[in-house]
Amino acid sequence: RWQKIFMIPLWSKMAVFWNKMFLTIIVLLIVLFLDAVREVRKYSAVHVNERAANVNTNAFDHIQMKLFRSQRNLYLSGFSLFLWLVLRRTVTLLTQLAKGMASHAALEMQVNDATEAAKKYMAENEKLQE
Question: With 60 as the cut, is the pLDDT of residue 53 above it?
């Protein structure tokens, strides 16, 4: 039943669109990840000496806040990129498994038909020999 549903030509057109969309999302996540890495490096390199921190504690807090946000963005974009790739691989493996199962079922039916035909011909051959 599912094969009949997924053999509709609309799905193949949508598959092309979603493959392009997938690549676009991957590129976007890579850009966000690289931007987060750049931000973390930028704010991690800022060292505020104690005298400047005592003079303006708001500046130190502001830098720490930006560092926290950049680290958060790094973790979110990295984890999203990782999960997106895992999801894509899982879908690819499931698709290959479904194709393999379909071909296995077709081959099994073909073998059963050949076996039945061979039994029928052997029975006819025995009748003819008698």
Answer: no
